[in-house]
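Page 47, continued from p. 46.
Same chain as before, 176 aa.
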Amino acid sequence: LPYVFNIVSALQCGGSIWTDPSREEFYTPYLRLLSLPNVRHHKTLPNPEVMKLLERSHFSLLTTFADTFGYSAIESMAKGTPVICTNQGALPEFISDGVNGFSLAPATTQGAPDWRPDFNSRGNADFEQLFAGNVERLATGAVKKLTQITNPDQYANMRKAAHNTAKDFFDANTAS
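Result:
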């Protein structure tokens, strides 16, 4: 892909995390992607460095399966960085698709409007296939959304709207 991905995460996955497949080997193909030339992985960074990275980024990504409130999305928008997110939890309350970011349909389990897996099924192949299918759909959807940006003014307006949203909704002085 013609994008550079900066990942700041300890990449905790599987094990006791209720959203994830439990088998460690499941993640091997995903973890191999960290060695791609357009991927920069930081296990941790001091917050001032994260904020500088967000400010220099074109987009921030929070395609979460289960977060209910995205603090990283707010931090991104405060720096004028639009967010690509899943349309769940509180995120739809402040991220408007095509205005200050992009929204994708949330990960789902069969018969539920969102991700509600049976914790005990996380080790079986059907669950892993469902999880992988949602990951692929979100990744493909994010790339598709990026292609909707057709001119620099459109993107500049998204950056401005992202910053204004963070200020209007979350500025400490405004809230006071």
